[in-house]
Amino acid sequence: MGKVSIGLRGWRFDESAVFTDDGEIMAIDAMDPETRQRVARLREVIGSPCHACWLLHGDENLDACNVAAAVYGEPLSEVVVCDVHEPDFLYWYREEGGSERRGEPELQDAFHEWFLDGGRAPEDYAGLEHVDTDPTAVPQVSGTTSAAEAEREANTVDLDSLDID
């Protein structure tokens, strides 16, 4: 099994950490804590406005914001971006020092500051080429724990005990 994105590009999961041998999504409480936290958080950020669009338009004009297409960073300090602004994030991350904040909660704030200061990818910046097999199919999570309860539980995980790159 390989790595897959679920619902949004960016976060990649080992298939065996999310799906059973039959191809069904595992019960949320059967997933390891890091996977559970990301899957639960995905349910919250799917359909949310792009952070870059939101920075441009604000809460009063959410209708002008594109819906998120990709998520980067760590849960609860992630950056969600639309197709239009994903190259801006990738440029910042790769070329403007954003990668120095990899795994840090400050990643979101640092990107927001750079973007608000006028930071943008050059017109000819390629970004990433993606292969979407079914971008609208988000698996339903089943198990004894609701998604909200799983997220609360995931947020209480002792992060010092996790082996995170």
List the defining traits of the structure above.
165 residues; mainly alpha; 6 helices; 4 strands; globular
Secondary-structure map:
Elements: E1 3-4, E2 13-14, H1 15-18, H2 33-45, H3 51-57, E3 70-72, E4 79-81, H4 86-95, H5 107-116, H6 147-155
Antiparallel strand pairs: 1-2, 3-4
Helix pairs in contact: 2-6
Description:
With 165 residues, the chain is mostly helical. The protein has a domain of 95 residues. 32% of the residues lie in helices and 6% in strands. It contains six helices and four strands. The strands form two sheets. Strands 1-2 form a two-stranded antiparallel sheet. A two-stranded antiparallel ribbon has the order 3-4. It starts with a strand and ends in a 10-residue tail after the last helix. 30% of the residues are buried.
User: Which segments are poorly predicted (pLDDT under 50) over 5 or more consecutive residues?
Assistant: 141-147, 157-165
Specify the overall morphology. globular
The secondary-structure element order is: EEHHHEEHHH
C-alpha-based Rg, rounded: 16 Å
Tell how many strands the DSSP assignment holds.
4
Kindly report the spatial arrangement of strands forming the biggest sheet. Answer: 1-2
Mean pLDDT, all residues = 84
Percent of residues in helical segments? 25-40%
Distance between the termini: 21 Å
Strand content: 5-15%
What is the structural class?
mainly alpha
How many helices does DSSP assign?
A: 6
Query: Largest sheet, described in full?
Result: 2 strands, antiparallel
